[in-house]
């Protein structure tokens, strides 16, 4: 059974700091991995999607890496800003034996960036 | 910007009542997902449709939950009868295919008393 773990559960940093969020998964047979952001009372917003054949994706100040063999991904946020404060969720996608797609989420890392 | 729309945003009702949650996926998206989010369990997949056909509803309690797509612009999730343990935020998401990110609605916050 695929399980996704995110560490730490919460992180508080001063503005301007570079930071890394971690995600690990138990089964390396994934289709892709996504990082999402969730603001309070809102749905999830996709930040980056890494295909299983890729090693990393970048968008602005965000960089996500994927090491399938070790079952790990990191989300790097450069020069953090108070507006980055949110919960960040990692999710892995895999194809079931029945041919349907399943997305399994970690429980998230709650990030607070202090001005 | 195209958005996934969910109604109602909030629902409070007594146990035993029927609850219907609605979702309007983004026009042109052919996959629709229903998720449930709680503090204890996090985000869990309940059901998944492609081209309006249910592909996987293994995450859904079959005795009280049902999910349908009467047409391409509407997905529904029903709970009958509702129980206090069903209290959660229910999200709908839509997408184009497995290689594209899913777009989430803002959720329905459900409280069963």
Multimerization status: heterodimer
The string of secondary-structure elements of chain A, in order, is EEEEEEEEEEE
Number of E strands of chain B: 11
Topology as H/E string of chain B?
A: EEEEEEEEEEE
Mean pLDDT of chain B: 93
Class from secondary-structure proportions of chain B: mainly beta
Give the overall silhouette of chain B: globular
Number of helices of chain B: 0
Rounded to the nearest angstrom, the radius of gyration of chain B is 13 Å
Tell me what portion of residues of chain A adopts beta-strand conformation: over 45%
Number of helical runs of chain A?
0
CA-CA gap between termini of chain B:
36 Å
Largest interface (C-beta under 8 Å): A-B, 28 and 22 residues
Q: How big a fraction of the residues of chain B is strand?
A: over 45%
Rg of chain A, nearest Å: 14 Å
Q: Measure the end-to-end span of chain A.
A: 41 Å
Main beta-sheet annotation of chain B: 7 strands, mixed
Helical fraction of chain A equals under 10%
Helix content of chain B: under 10%
Main sheet specs of chain A: 6 strands, mixed
Spatial shape of chain A: globular
What topology emerges from the helices and strands here?
The complex is a heterodimer of chains A (115) and B (113).
Chain A: E1 4-7, E2 10-14, E3 19-25, E4 32-38, E5 44-51, E6 56-59, E7 62-67, E8 72-77, E9 86-95, E10 101-105, E11 109-114
Chain B: E1 5-7, E2 10-13, E3 19-24, E4 31-38, E5 42-50, E6 53-56, E7 65-71, E8 74-79, E9 88-95, E10 103-104, E11 108-112
